[in-house]
């Protein structure tokens, strides 16, 4: 428990993460909503494409810009992939049934568009915590 007190959540890293996130979100939203609404892809295909492409972009920006992680190890990349996968599954797995319940009686297209937006918000919060304290955790000497 004492180790957790040493971590600050609200600092310059959070601000950098949010800047990277805004850019990544705009690109990701274009991909996700474009695939879903224009190309006719499913909820899962559209949201997954967003996170696969966005995660590659996010990995490099957050590794070098946000968290300034200089390590050269596959372990960091593997932890990042585990984090993204976990956060994606949890966020979108919660968002879809929750939104379908709240918007029952509405058209499926509206339900799933709102569910993707809710999933995106949940993902952002979970992903920051996971990247900060798991994927790019600081190693104390």
Characterization of this structure:
- By secondary structure, this protein is mainly α.
- It has one domain (11-135).
- It contains five helices and no strands.
- It has helices at 2-5, 12-37, 43-66, 74-102, 108-135.
- Helix 2 packs antiparallel against helix 3 (43-66), helix 3 packs across helix 4 and helix 4 runs antiparallel to helix 5.
- The two termini are 19 Å apart.
Features:
elongated; 141 residues; mainly alpha
Q: Helix and strand layout, with pairings?
A:
Elements: H1 2-5, H2 12-37, H3 43-66, H4 74-102, H5 108-135
Précis, in short:
It is built from 5 helices and no strands.
Estimated radius of gyration: 16 Å
Number of distinct helices: 5
Global mean pLDDT: 88
Count of domain modules: 1
* Order of H and E elements: HHHHH
What's the end-to-end separation, in Å?
19 Å
User: Which structural class best describes the helix and strand composition?
Assistant: mainly alpha
Biggest pleated sheet: none
Give the tally of β-strands: 0
In terms of DSSP E residues, the strand content is under 5%
Helix content: over 70%
Shape: elongated
Q: Low-confidence parts, pLDDT < 50 over ≥5 residues?
A: none
């Amino acid at each position: 428990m004492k180790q957790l007190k040493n971590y600050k959540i609200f600092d310059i890293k959070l601000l950098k993460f949010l800047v990277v996130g805004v850019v990544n979100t705009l690109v990701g939203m274009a991909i996700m909503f474009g695939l879903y609404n224009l190309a006719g892809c499913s909820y899962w295909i559209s949201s997954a494409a967003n996170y696969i492409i966005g995660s590659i972009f996010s990995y490099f920006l957050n590794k070098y810009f946000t968290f300034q992680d200089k390590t050269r190890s596959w372990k960091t990349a593997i932890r990042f992939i585990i984090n993204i996968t976990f956060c994606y599954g949890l966020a979108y797995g919660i968002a879809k049934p929750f939104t379908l319940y709240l918007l029952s009686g509405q058209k499926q297209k509206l339900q799933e568009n709102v569910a993707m937006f809710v999933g995106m918000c949940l993902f952002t919060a979970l992903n920051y915590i996971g990247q900060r304290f798991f994927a790019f955790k600081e190693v104390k000497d």
